[in-house]
Amino acid sequence: MNIAARVLLCSALLLSATAGAQTRPAERGKQLFDHWCSACHKPLGEFVSSVPGTTALQNKYKGAIPAALEQRNDLKPDYVRLIIRQGILSMPFFRKTELSDDDVAAIGAYLARP
Ligand code: HEC
User: Fold this and answer.
1) pTM score above 0.90
2) Is any ligand 1 atom within 6 A of the Cβ of residue 84?
């Protein structure tokens, strides 16, 4: 394959990747959540008796709402963005070099999905 064909192929691949990200933000949000958040926010279960985020939210809400973020239906993208950028108590904030604004929006869309 000559150089021009390679460049064309690369841009086509890049374009389809961005198109995918734009049409399915919640799906991308799930991948990002699994990578950046689930270590602290996964649901507790048989083999998981405590993770910092879920355990702290369990203590905070005392079961009034689910402690695992993915099981909640009251989260709004704006609130999720605020927490991601500022952190809260023992939760660290995330820089734009770690999670871009698009990434944060995708995570917000994922957590706020119906
Ligand atoms: C190092 C562990 C850790 C990581 C990583 C982490 N969190 Fe948290 N998160 C926490 C803790 C602990 C709290 C609870 C703080 C408190 O007691 O109010 C929290 C709270 C939150 C809340 C507030 C929930 C509420 O009801 O007020 C949101 C939203 C949240 N995290 C989203 C995220 C997202 C999205 C990510 C990934 C980008 C993430 N967190 C990564 C530890 C973490």
Assistant:
1) no
2) yes
